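Morning!

As promised:
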Amino acid sequence: MIGISFFLGASFGRDEGKWAEYLGETKPRLAEAAGWVRENAAGDKSGFGWYNLPDQNTEELKKISAWLSGYDAIIHVGIGGSALGNLMLHQALLPMYLNERAEHPHFYLADNPDPEKAAAIWERVKGSRVALVGVSKSGATAETMSQFLWFRSKMKDSGVNPDENTLVITDPKGGVFRSFAGTVKCRSLEIPPSVGGRYSVLSNCGLISAAALGADTTKLLAGAASMRKFIETAGSDANPALTLAAIHRFHELNGRPMAVLMPYSNRMETFSEWFAQLWGESVGKDGKGTTPVRALGAIDQHSQVQLYTAGPDDKLYTLINIASRREEITLPQVDEESLVSLAYLSGQRLGEMLGYEAQSTAAALVKAGRPVVWIELDKLNEESLGALIFFYEYVTAVTGHLMGINPFDQPGVEQGKHYTYGLMGRGEYSGDAKEAGEYFGLIKKSEIKA
Amino acid sequence: MIGISFFLGASFGRDEGKWAEYLGETKPRLAEAAGWVRENAAGDKSGFGWYNLPDQNTEELKKISAWLSGYDAIIHVGIGGSALGNLMLHQALLPMYLNERAEHPHFYLADNPDPEKAAAIWERVKGSRVALVGVSKSGATAETMSQFLWFRSKMKDSGVNPDENTLVITDPKGGVFRSFAGTVKCRSLEIPPSVGGRYSVLSNCGLISAAALGADTTKLLAGAASMRKFIETAGSDANPALTLAAIHRFHELNGRPMAVLMPYSNRMETFSEWFAQLWGESVGKDGKGTTPVRALGAIDQHSQVQLYTAGPDDKLYTLINIASRREEITLPQVDEESLVSLAYLSGQRLGEMLGYEAQSTAAALVKAGRPVVWIELDKLNEESLGALIFFYEYVTAVTGHLMGINPFDQPGVEQGKHYTYGLMGRGEYSGDAKEAGEYFGLIKKSEIKA
């Protein structure tokens, strides 16, 4: 017990009665799900490795992140699970605008194979001491490897030995990246084979850059361990992670195909992106799955709340509030005559106002009969974030299990990959290129000239 | 005609037959909608002002943006429609990482009343020459005014005369901000009364910072004018903007409550956010409206495409591709033995690969029976972006009209505002504070301690 506490609350709108019934029916299944996670994790079964990450040995991570922290710039090449977690940890834990400060390396995420972004990154870093970090479990991800090879060639062209300045994070035994690392003798770290990309933020994949930039990864893992212990000891009746999984499944079954995550903190903006990847790729299968919708409070009150309160009743809303923020701002006395209608702002605290806005949005949603989940962290720090990450990984896995799908695979992404290989001219995929052309041709195009 | 061309294509999955029937039935309504926009815009009716923005006089904008461009830093305070458009234009039109360069002012958007963000902004800019830009039509927006007042007090505290370094953008006649500007004699620009916040990107609201940072706003407006002309002269039968509105409404009626927008360009990431605000607040009314879902290609292939192809058939997908990018990257020859399986990447062009990925995702979605809209810009520049902005404003307004709702109001956001006022202790809203507490209390909370 390390002092994380948070509230999880839920209202059910017009389905209050149905929920009690569903929960009653589902209890045995929840107990079974808890056992399913625990036993498979104990056997380190494929996909379940995230459950054991709080216990990992971080000696190598510490050594290599210390080395990395000495650079002027880090180019981190990865996509999806190999990218989002890093940004999420940076945003939540490091000072804002860290990237522009001198004390730590500047961090550049080359996640999209967009030549304009990649070229802009190189333009920024060239001439400084640059470390290249490549993250891919297999080393076969085209988006990642293409950029990795290009940045590598730019390093060579500028007279730097890339191998001395490269780190790859990959499978401990197999794959292109592993054999590459062995051949060129660059630094490497492992992604445990039982950990999938979207569950990898608490592995070397996600921790490396956060550690190099100054986040306390030991505390992050301690937070996750603490949540795991809470979940294991709560019993399936009083386990809010199991309850939340049941809530998600219940609303999916009751005609709500969307799950909105709306934290009230700029530091958690990327947390919603991370959640969206974890959730969408885990539960979107066999014609099932709710769609994650990213929102940010209070900004989206001026963007999405009109739709949320007055549009269709087709979403489950989760609001996350932070009780005590790292900084508070007290507003000045409003004494100008022309601003008299704003006098009510005098002496108010901005963070407190943000909390009132979160409560007001929750109340307005409840009034409109919409289902709301409320999560409140005392503080947003390494411990509570580690706990919340673990909590959501658990909720996602259990929700998938309740749906009867495998929350750890992603068969649906292969088709597009094969089409791309084919269009890029790989001989063995020429049939895919043809098929891609046929399906793409079904999109009837009309030209607009203006 | 200034040489913008783009393709708009659509496939209808399993609803191909139904669509032809719907379009036939809806044609008279589309013709009526086209007239509705044109006539109301001609009368400068409330809400329709966006249609006339291409004709605005930009003399004041140019003068004031030139003044603004001489500062070290701009703090832009606004939320929703007074904020997103600026970011969208910067990202699409300015060089990446502009913010860290010296030639132009650094731009800081204070859109969220999050004390951690506001404090971080001040920490970054203090000591440099700072301009404060406040954007609110009424001057009553609590999130904006609170931060405006705080930054103003910080400027005073640091010995600067804030009034000489402040610009407000607001209603030409009424509201707190207008009387404030008159009293303190700071610079001001107008938001035309007939232009709503979410349709304001091509007004002073959105153009000011883009102009100060170096975008060519004349070309942006020319692009919008060109699209308007195309729409006006196309006739309702061959007008793809009307067709796209019908497509959106058709899929809403056929059980698809989500509209995904997925551009394949980092420069358009914020365009999706802007669209989400425009769309959600315009069409989410009377229990109707589809939910905008923001995606980014190719990144979301590793996040959302599993769900898109294998989850429920409950979305309309719009992919936006750029035929010719500002930069292209040619990948190096892959000659290392350990990388032989990546030899297919040798000499490939990264932007071309990104285009193949867009096509592959579209083809995979079509194969899965999902409805796809394909938009392709020759280039992403001022003209094409201006055209695309106008196009989507038109599509949004017409879709709302087809739904039978008013696409220019936002009554659903008032409830939350009143609750917040009440919780902040404004006497006249004490009944709201009580009601907020009651509804919030319906969220049953259980404590987690870990």
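The mean pLDDT of chain A is 93.

Hope this helps with the figure draft.
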